[in-house]
Specification:
Layout (H helix, E strand, L loop, with lengths): L4 H4 L7 H12 L5 E2 L11 H11 L14 H15 L9 E4 L2 H12 L5 E6 L4 H8 L3 E6 L15 H6 E7 L11 H14 L2 E5 L21 H4 E6 H4 L8 E5 L1 H12 L7 H12 L3 H23 L12 E5 L6 H12 L1 E2 L1 E2 L10 E5 L4 H19 L1
Helix pairs in contact: 3-12, 4-12, 5-6, 5-11, 13-15
Bound molecules: pyridoxal-5'-phosphate.
Length: 390
């Protein structure tokens, strides 16, 4: 049997070694606490589950859904965007439901990238941007996200020949894994850059609703001209703790939405309709859950930040996202340091290099574990640090 190159080119799973050690420890009966998973621990709001159960009883929802989603779901998405960001979309031409944002992010490369084409992709980043590009036969040109640049790509320093050759630029704010946020002026510069070089912009924005201290993240689509050049991916996963239901959306430029709809209609048959009804309920029903959840994450953030500072790890307090991006001490690689925390403290964190080479020197800690487990993790980190100082 001979497999396709794209399968062989998939990067080796960076955490094989860590995963093996976790399994080993657990087999021995050791308790391991993972701060490595970006998956909300808080359940989906009850009213959303009830709507899902009701919808499951309706035989109309037992049949093939339409690829482009229920018209009432597309309208609910457009209304939500209007209410939240003051941006209007035509629900029939500028909105497309997705089987989770990841599905659309992976497939949209097929709309832009022919073999040999270039995508501009941040580093560190959510791996699907570059892997989707590779699956389509293209190459990623990486844009370093560094602390000096507030984890925003430095557009002025992208070589002109690369910018001209590229067909798409990926951005993601509030950012995973760095937890950085972007304001309107940055998005405006991205629009201008995209126009100058005839690029499409794909903004991934699943964390716009997960924010702290009263901060309200901006949507790329709020930038004047954004709709002429790009789209924004969004998801119900992080906003409404619905990762398991697989439902998200993309909004923006009608030509891009049309292209993705055509690609997808040849690959999938849409989102199970009962789940679309649950998603409508989430977007149009009571929104108190968002503030309630953010208050929980904010408490966890503060607890973890305090501990990190006590044990000598520097981190900027995130204003949004589910993560803390912490600098590790000199003299370690991210992978070494993460391995050490696992072996010596029984706490799992993600090495920054899992998201690209510019993630070196950092670890990512997630706020999605129950309070009592987080408190235990914090206790372990504190003891671990004390034991090292003798
Ligand atoms: C969680 C996440 C997604 C995926 O969301 P789904 O809708 O669950 O597929 C996309 N992008 C980033 C950066 C994420 O962290």
């Amino acid at each position: 049997m001979r497999m396709a190159k794209r399968v062989e080119e998939l990067p080796p799973y960076l955490f094989v070694e860590i995963s093996r050690k976790i399994a080993e420890k657990r087999a021995k009966g050791d308790d391991v606490i993972s701060l490595a998973i970006g998956d909300p621990d808080i359940p989906t709001p009850q009213h959303v589950i009830e709507r899902l159960c009701q919808a499951a009883q309706d035989p109309a929802n037992h049949r093939y859904p339409e690829s482009e989603g229920l018209p009432e779901f597309r309208s609910a998405i457009a209304e939500w965007y209007e209410k939240r960001f003051g941006v209007t979309f035509d629900p029939d031409r500028e909105v497309l439901p997705l089987i989770g944002a990841k599905e659309g992010i992976g497939h949209i490369a097929l709309c832009f990238i022919d073999p040999g084409d270039v995508a501009l992709v941040p580093d560190p980043a959510y791996p699907v941007f570059s892997i989707g590009t590779m699956f389509a036969g293209g190459f990623s040109y990486y844009l370093p996200l560094t602390e000096e640049n507030d984890f925003l790509p430095d557009l002025e320093h992208i070589p002109q020949d690369i910018a001209r050759k590229a067909k798409v630029i990926w951005i993601n704010y509030p950012n995973n894994p760095t937890a950085a946020v972007a304001e309107l002026d940055f998005f405006e510069r991205v629009v201008a850059f995209a126009k100058r070089y005839d690029l499409a912009v794909c903004h991934d924005g699943p964390y716009t609703e997960v924010s702290f201290d009263g901060y309200r993240p901006t949507s790329f689509m709020q930038a004047p001209g954004a709709k002429e050049v790009g789209v924004e991916f969004h998801s119900l996963s992080k906003s409404y703790n619905m990762t398991g239901w697989r439902v998200g959306m993309v909004v923006g430029n009608a030509r891009i939405i049309d292209a993705l709809t055509r690609v997808k209609s040849n690959l999938d048959s849409g989102i199970p309709q009962a789940i679309q009804h649950a998603a409508i309920e989430a977007l149009t029903g009571p929104q108190d859950c968002i503030e309630e959840h953010n208050a929980i994450y904010q408490r966890r953030r503060d607890l973890l930040l305090q501990t990190l500072s006590e044990i000598g790890l520097k981190a900027r307090p995130p204003r949004a996202s589910l993560y803390i991006w912490a600098r590790i001490p000199d003299g370690y690689t991210s992978l070494d340091f993460a391995t050490k925390l696992l072996e010596e403290a029984g706490v799992v964190v993600t090495p920054g290099t899992g998201y690209g080479k510019y993630g070196e020197g950092y670890i990512r800690l997630s706020l999605t574990i129950p309070d009592e487990r987080l408190e235990e993790a914090v206790r372990r980190l504190t003891l671990w640090h004390a034991s090292k100082r003798g």
